[in-house]
Automatic annotation (TrEMBL), chain A:
NCBIfam families: nrfE, PRK10369.1. This is Cytochrome c heme lyase subunit CcmF. It comes from Nitrincola lacisaponensis. The chain crosses the membrane at residues 6-30, 42-61, 81-109, 121-142, 178-198, 210-230, 250-266, 275-294, 314-332, 353-374, 394-414, 426-444, 450-471, 491-515, 616-636. Required for the biogenesis of c-type cytochromes. Possible subunit of a heme lyase. Keywords: Cell inner membrane, Cell membrane, Cytochrome c-type biogenesis, Lyase, Membrane, Transmembrane, Transmembrane helix. It is found in: Cell inner membrane. InterPro entries: CcmF_C, Cyt_c_assembly, Cyt_c_biogenesis, Cyt_c_biogenesis_CcmF. Belongs to the CcmF/CycK/Ccl1/NrfE/CcsA family. Pfam families: CcmF_C (PF16327), Cytochrom_C_asm (PF01578). It comes from the Bacteria. Residues 316-637 form the Cytochrome c-type biogenesis protein CcmF C-terminal domain. Its main location: membrane. GO terms for cellular component: plasma membrane.
From TrEMBL, chain B:
It comes from Nitrincola lacisaponensis. It comes from the Bacteria. This is Cytochrome c-type biogenesis protein. Residues 1-19 form the signal peptide. Keywords: Cytochrome c-type biogenesis, Heme, Iron, Lyase, Membrane, Metal-binding, Signal, Transmembrane, Transmembrane helix. The keyword Isomerase does not apply. One of its GO terms (biological process) is cytochrome complex assembly. Gene3D superfamilies: Cytochrome C biogenesis protein (1.10.8.640). GO terms for cellular component: plasma membrane. CDD domains: CcmH_N (cd16378). Belongs to the CcmH/CycL/Ccl2/NrfF family. Pfam families: CcmH.
Length: 655, 170
């Protein structure tokens, strides 16, 4: 009964979403206020019924209702309750439901938070979001319903959640990532609404900005969580594999990063409007493309849980419709857009355009690299592999160039910046970066490594240029504290984001170059020493977990000869699926991680062990967290709401 | 349907679940570094998308043994990669070779970058020329109406000042 109610609830949501995508849109065109007013209640209705559907699915999981195919595939009576909860998005059907629920959530958020927007724009935006909801709900109901049943013979026991997914990472990574992916649909809907209404102006950019910032922040967080999860869960100690699925999330991120910068120019200066709209459309289309690549099984990937080619056809159709439709609309409408101001080659506008070029080229590079083997294969040109060596070789120079411009941009001004001003402000940070980079490198390690030196140079470049710019702002008046609090939240958000880039660069270079590892056969009592740490293997014993049995090793760690820590890596065998998994032992630290993974059991109680020393690896995710915080802080700037209110008031008084 | 579906699903989840590795001895640390480097550049031919260092497939283990043997017998990196490619095809190497069919892959992004920077130059120049042209027109025609601009009324001017003041800190 409960699963049928779930299906029913999903169908009701579909009906409401259908009305949502038609009635307010028609109302906006015919000027019928009553019809447009339907948009907000309908958005709430869709969200209500999808929340109900999620709750019913959660109930089926918690009550071990294995007559539901999806529950039987990805749960088990022995699974702890919190994994029974996160198992909702552990497979294809449920993750789509999560996707569309988040879509409904964003639609609701726009409906509630758009009090100050012109009604016809609200109607159009919500209608476009309704259309996206309709497409995904059709996909769920026709090809991948999580409420399908095994009837009349239901299994007694479920197949269990993939052990890899029985982890805190699964609880947080997909929702955060989807918040980002789907959040881009808000920017997309605003862009489409602006194209439809023909009102592509600075106001449009200001409405989109906070939404885009929040979506971007969640996308950043989601990708970082995925990276962190892969790091400790897969047992290899890698944090980025250039896997197609990772690329699928990186591409929208790159374009969204270009978009948040481009929106700034469009809002402040009224230029690049059609380019910004194109970015908004591309960002969301790329997240759809990512879904298609991941869910259709077109790409072989280590992440490809439960893929199905037939579903791919549906997503492909949707993709062609969305991309084709929005680009057609763009082609018709964008030509009539006029820029409102001019700018010189040496100006903040140009530098932000360079940022956009570099990010879109990087995205194109990732896209080419990801799809190239597919195209080669389809054209019978042979099977090739495009992997980390290719992506690193092209991505690193592009991003390094980006950071160089990022520093220059700190002192650029709108419209025109004299080159003499730039050079007078930049030489000191430049010299300081070189000195500081050399000194830091020399202090950390005697030998000079090119990549580390470059990374330190770029990081210091960001810190010193933006630091100097910040100091200049603090010196405007005598009172430093007042100067500090006078700066807007969007400004601090930007500083935080850029600081995050600097921190992340250090982490990436340090862990890549100075990682040290030992693969060793260790018998009880054996010890191994490197990087000032001594690892003593005390042997392994059997441990019984809730739904697994494990060999748990004990490794005592001495630091400079003094007892420091005990670490317990495990090798777990999950009973329901008889799958073996490595549970690594980690000793996280600000400047280094100790990382122990167990390999095979050898003779006489000896084990193959992989011990790793990973310097500054935490800085990668710390950088991403700073960027996330920056994005959220910028979005929370009260000026967006204040200006909207002012405009609304003015509109009211003119009407 | 029924339970027959479950084993099938298990097969679909052919995910590598543990890092597998041997404990090879190397004559020099340089050789050891080469081993780690090359084992990350070679793709396991039977896996979904993994290098031979991370894979636990039997074939990956064979390739690791072969790689270790070749390094210790004194082959250089190119010879080892050539050997692997001749045996398993281009598929085995994560760094595609530069050949006519991969020109687009290797050089495409640089062409895009070049075009992009060209576009920045063009856009900035055009904007400036257009701005200059508009200014000229305004100067020679003397009348602002000809450019479709009407002068601000005192009230509008006051509103503009207010707006500018408010925007100053942003």
């Amino acid at each position: 009964m409960i699963p049928e109610l779930g299906t029913f609830s999903t169908i009701l949501a579909l009906c409401l979403a259908l009305i949502l995508s038609v009635v307010p849109m028609v109302g906006a065109y015919t000027g019928n206020k009553l019809w447009v007013d339907y948009a907000r209640p309908l958005a709430k209705g869709v969200f209500f019924f999808l929340t109900l559907a999620m709750a019913l699915l959660a109930y089926s999981f918690q009550t071990d209702d294995f007559s539901v195919v999806y529950v039987a595939q990805s749960s088990n009576t022995n699974l702890p309750w919190y994994y029974k909860f996160s198992a909702i998005w552990g497979g294809h059907e449920g993750s789509l439901l999560l996707w569309v629920w988040i879509q409904a959530f964003w639609t609701l958020a726009v409906a509630i938070k758009s009090k100050n927007l012109p009604l016809d724009i609200v109607g159009r935006v919500l209608a476009v979001m309704g259309m996206i909801t309709v497409a995904f709900l059709l996909f769920i109901l026709f090809t991948s319903s999580p409420f399908e049943r095994f009837l009349p013979n239901a299994p007694m026991e479920g197949a269990d959640l993939n052990p890899l997914l029985q982890d805190f990472g699964l609880i947080v990574h997909p929702p955060a990532l989807y918040m980002g992916y789907v959040g881009l649909s808000v920017a997309f809907s605003f862009a489409i609404a602006a194209l439809l209404s023909g009102r592509l102006d600075a106001a449009w950019a200001r409405w989109s900005r906070p939404w885009t910032n929040v979506a971007w922040a969640f996308l950043t967080l989601g990708i970082a969580l995925g990276s962190w999860w892969a790091y400790y869960e897969l047992g290899w100690g890698g944090w980025w594999f250039w896997d197609p699925v990772e690329n699928a999330s990186l591409m929208p991120w790159l374009v969204a990063t270009a978009l948040i910068h481009s929106l700034a120019v469009t809002e402040k200066r009224g230029v690049f409007k059609s380019w910004t709209v194109l970015l908004a459309i591309s960002a969301f289309c790329l997240s759809l493309l990512g879904t298609f690549l991941v869910r259709s099984g077109v790409l072989t990937s280590v992440h490809a849980f439960a893929t199905d080619p037939e579903r791919g056809v549906f997503i492909l159709g949707m993709l062609i419709f969305v991309i084709g439709g929005s680009l057609l609309l763009y082609a018709i409408r964008a030509g009539s857009v006029k820029s409102e101001s001019s700018f010189a080659l040496s100006s903040r506008e140009s530098l932000l355009l360079v940022n956009n070029i570099l990010f879109t080229v990087a995205c194109a590079m990732v896209l080419i690299g990801t799809l190239y083997p597919l195209v080669m294969d389809a054209l019978n040109l042979g099977k090739i592999s495009v992997g980390p060596p290719y992506f690193n070789a092209l991505f690193v120079p592009l991003m390094s160039l980006m950071v160089v411009f990022l520093g220059i941009a700190a002192f650029s001004r709108w419209k025109e910046t004299p080159v003499s001003l730039l050079s007078s402000k930049l030489w000191l940070p430049g010299v300081l970066s070189v000195v500081a980079a050399l000194a830091t490198h020399w202090l950390y390690s005697g030998s000079i490594e090119f990549w580390v030196l470059l990374a330190l140079l770029l990081s210091y470049w960001i810190v010193f240029t933006w630091g100097r710019e910040y100091l200049t702002r603090l010196r405007i008046r005598k009172d430093w504290l007042a100067n500090m609090t006078r700066q807007s939240r969007s400004y601090y958000g930007m500083l935080l984001g850029h600081l995050g880039v600097a921190v992340m660069i250090v982490g990436i270079a340090m862990v890549t170059v100075f990682v040290e590892h030992r693969d060793a056969r260790m018998a009880p009592g054996d010890q191994l020493e490197f990087r000032g740490y001594t690892f003593i293997f005390d042997g392994a014993r059997k441990v019984q977990g809730p739904n697994y049995v494990s060999d748990m090793a004990r490794v005592r760690v001495l630091k400079d000869g003094q007892p420091f820590r005990e670490m317990f890596p495990e090798k777990r065998k999950y009973t329901a699926r008889s799958m073996v998994m490595t549970q690594v032992a980690l000793d996280p630290g600000f400047t280094r991680d100790l990382y122990i993974a167990m390999g095979e059991e050898l003779e006489n109680g000896a084990w193959a062990m992989r011990l790793q020393f990973k310097p500054f690896v935490r800085w990668i995710w710390l950088g991403a967290l700073l960027m996330t915080a920056g994005g959220l802080l910028a979005a929370s700037d009260p000026r967006y709401r204040k200006q909207d209110k002012r405009e609304a008031a003015e509109r009211g008084s003119y009407a | 349907m029924k339970l027959t579906l479950l084993p099938l699903l298990l097969c679909l989840l052919s995910f590598p679940l543990w890092a597998s590795f041997e404990t090879y001895e190397f004559s020099t640390t340089h050789n050891e570094m080469r081993y780690f480097h090359l084992s990350k550049e070679l793709r396991c031919p039977t896996c979904q998308n993994q290098n031979i260092s991370d894979s636990d497939a039997p074939l990956a283990a064979d390739l690791r043994r072969e790689l270790h043997r070749m390094i210790e017998s004194g082959y250089d990196d190119d010879a080892i990669l050539d050997f692997m490619v001749s045996r398993f095809g281009d598929f085995v190497h994560y760094r595609p070779r530069v050949a006519p069919e991969t020109y687009l892959l290797w050089y495409g992004p640089f062409v895009l970058l070049f075009v992009g920077f060209g576009a920045v130059l063009m856009v900035a120049r055009n904007r400036r020329l257009r701005a200059a042209a508009v200014q000229d027109a305004q100067v020679t025609d003397t009348a602002e109406e000809s450019a479709g601009v009407t002068p601000l009324t005192p009230q509008e001017r006051e509103r503009l000042e207010n707006l500018l003041r408010q925007d100053k800190n942003l």
